[in-house]
Amino acid sequence: MFKRTLLTIIILSSLNHAEDSFSSEQFLGIEAGYGTVQSRNVIGIQESDKGVEFGFRIGAQNQEWRTTISAHAFSKNSQEYFRTLLMFDKFVWSSHYKKDDVVFKPYLGGHVGWLKYSSKSGIEDSGFLYGGQAGIAWNVMREVDFDLGYRYSFSDVHSVDDIGSVVFAVNYLY
Q: What is d(CA 19, CA 14) in angstroms, rounded to the nearest whole number?
């Protein structure tokens, strides 16, 4: 308990310090996507399930970078997962940031995270997750940012090979 409290205090104080020295916009968002989970069942046969995933996100961005913490849930037929990700995106091009009514910002990025996986065949496992993403973000209003991207993840979970998702998100900038 003490370690969690200490870690929370350190993270919050570093975020507070980063806010003072890093000019950025914070955001909260929701996302929906269509994902494919490639996995192996109990006897090692490849399985693939496609379905809808939902999640939420919180983060900060400036003209060049975006950092996001997100959580997603997926449930389809015989497979379920919950994953949390720490994502870093580099905007590769931006049209006159904050000056146009609509600002397009293509990005490339990477992510690391944690995956909790279970299947109806009795497999329950969890482990690390890593991968990359690409997409385009665009500001439709000063306070609203849309994001459409593709995210591909590898896992060290024995039963899960990879997860690919097309994701649409709406972010509220503050």
A: 9
